[in-house]
Amino acid sequence: MNENMYAAITGIPAGFKAFVGAMQERLEARYPDCEVRAVQTDKNNGVRLTGIVIMQDGENVTPNIYMEGFYREYLDGRRMEDIEDDAARLYCNAALYSRRKKHFIFDSINTITAPSFR
């Protein structure tokens, strides 16, 4: 039985590429007003990673949610629903930070000073 047939019968992705595709579909359903796509990123150490990006209209920066670690967790028996929830949480936390970072002032010794909102 090939990987595509196995996935069609069981609903379980077979192989990393199928896993990434399934995760992309789940996140597209969760964020129907966003563009969700899989991307390849070359890191400076010569490693190529596969990530998923979720872009809302008007956003020009979004996190790369790397799939390799999630795939290892999946192979170890973790449920797709739980992995999807974690990926969504990463996106939401990054989006929240991106929207709020304009309220922080970074000084030269890497400490953060929050202005008073009173």
The SS-based structural class is alpha+beta
| DSSP, total strands | 5
- Which blocks of ≥5 consecutive residues have pLDDT under 50? 103-114
Largest sheet: 3 strands, antiparallel
The string of secondary-structure elements, in order, is: HHEEEHHEE
Tally of DSSP helical segments = 4
Strand order of the largest sheet: 1-2-3
Instruction: Estimate percent helicity.
Output: 40-55%
Protein described:
Strands 1-2-3 form a 3-stranded antiparallel beta sheet. The chain has a two-stranded antiparallel ribbon with strand order 4-5. The longest helix is centred in the C-terminal third of the chain and has 21 residues, at 80-100. Mean pLDDT is 78; it is low at 103-114. It is of the alpha+beta class. It contains 4 helices and 5 strands. The protein is globular, with a radius of gyration of 18 Å. β1 and β2 form a beta hairpin.
Give the helix/strand layout.
Elements: H1 3-10, H2 16-30, E1 35-42, E2 48-55, E3 65-66, H3 68-75, H4 80-100, E4 105-106, E5 112-113
Antiparallel strand pairs: 1-2, 2-3, 4-5
Based on the model shown, name its key terms.
118 residues, 4 helices, three-stranded antiparallel sheet, 19% strand, single chain, alpha+beta, 5 strands
